[in-house]
Amino acid sequence: MKEGHTYSERFRLKDFPYLFLDTYKAWNKARPWRLSAVVAYYAVLSLPALLVIIINIVGSIWGVDIVQGRLTDEFTTVLGANAANTIENIVQDTQNEDKNLISTIIGIATLLFGATGVFYQLKISLNEIWRIDGASGFNFWKLVSERAKSFAFILVIGFLLLISFMVTAAIAALNDYLKSLITEVAVYLAYGVDILSSIAIITVMFALMFKFLPDAKIKWRAVWIGAFVTAVLFVIGKFLLGLYFGEANPGSTYGAAGTIILVLLWVSYSCLILFFGAQFTYIYAKAYNILFVPYD
Questions:
Q1: How many domains does the structure of the chain reveal?
Q2: Residue 161, in any domain of the structure
Q3: What angle, 0 to 180 degrees and rounded to 10, lies between the N-to-C axes of helices 140-179 and 32-62?
Q4: Domain interval for residue 274
């Protein structure tokens, strides 16, 4: 990069603070709060459809009730019990409606369109952060292609979620075994393995997003580094957001709309971290002259 710190041809640990500083400056100029608010809005609209699809995909292997229960536990940890119960009720209402064939087809189409909306907006936001100009004008087949790509990401998330459940179950079994051999050491060991496995799975998810969502070619070398940094920041942010929502309960002043407000806040804050990681990936690629070419 020509501005700011002068980077060598290869990455050095002492470059890390400069990369973060340049990332922060570029991230702040990209107006991440506005981008996060847009994605959060579409996430609220997409959430029921997204959860229904993931629950049914993963549930076909793991068991629908088990998957729904695990997701409810995750929402409880992040958003609190009241919000988690509300989301669970929304999903159940969506799944339990009696419909005829036509309404079922329309319902499935609506689910697919709604669930892919948040990924489509993520793609637009990443394009803006990476300074990629999208094609002008309306192109129906391109829209269909983008929605298909977004649905593929839903399948990937479902697959990674399944792996996460399997790893968690394995860790729980390991923890029970270690407890019979050692005392408190097993708890800390299992907790550390759980964190590392979470970072690994989330890194894969972000790597796929950075590689395939935006309209640009970028080498895996930059993608993996950026995805790993994003995953670490995301895990830390998830913990801090859980503490914030648990202590401050910002949705309590909004009454019945509290769950929606909590989801908006959580997605918005999470997107700030995601966009920072995307910006870091861009800065890293430019700093070390890694291929970063927009698609024609």
A1: 1
A2: yes
A3: 60
A4: 13-294
Low-confidence ranges of the chain (pLDDT < 70): 1-5, 93-112, 114-115, 134-187, 190, 248-257, 295-296
pTM: 0.81
Contact (Cβ atoms closer than 8 angstroms) between residue 156 and residue 205: yes
In the chain, the amino acid numbered 86 is T
Q: What is the pLDDT of residues 152-173, one digit of tens each?
A: 666 666 666 666 666 666 666 6
Q: What is the pLDDT of residues 27-75, one digit of tens each?
A: 999 889 999 988 888 888 777 777 777 777 777 777 778 777 878 887 7
DSSP class per residue in the chain = --SSSPP-SS--GGGHHHHHHHHHHHHHHT-HHHHHHHHHHHHHHHHHHHHHHHHHHHHHHH-HHHHHHHHHHHHHHHH-HHHHHHHHHHHHHHHS----HHHHHHHHHHHHHHHHHHHHHHHHHHHHHTT-PPPPS--HHHHHHHHHHHHHHHHHHHHHHHHHHHHHHHHHHHHHHHHTT-STHHHHHHHHHHHHHHHHHHHHHHHHHHHHSSSEEE-HHHHHHHHHHHHHHHHHHHHHHHHHHHHH-TTGGGGGGHHHHHHHHHHHHHHHHHHHHHHHHHHHHHHTT--EEE--
> Does some domain include residue 72?
yes
Whole-number pLDDT of residue 276: 96
Q: Cα–Cα distances in Å, from 214 out to 34, 80, 128, 149, 218? A: 18, 33, 9, 11, 10
Tell me if 280 is assigned to some domain. yes
The CA distance from 224 to 220, in Å, is: 6
Separation of alpha carbons 275 and 6, rounded Å: 24
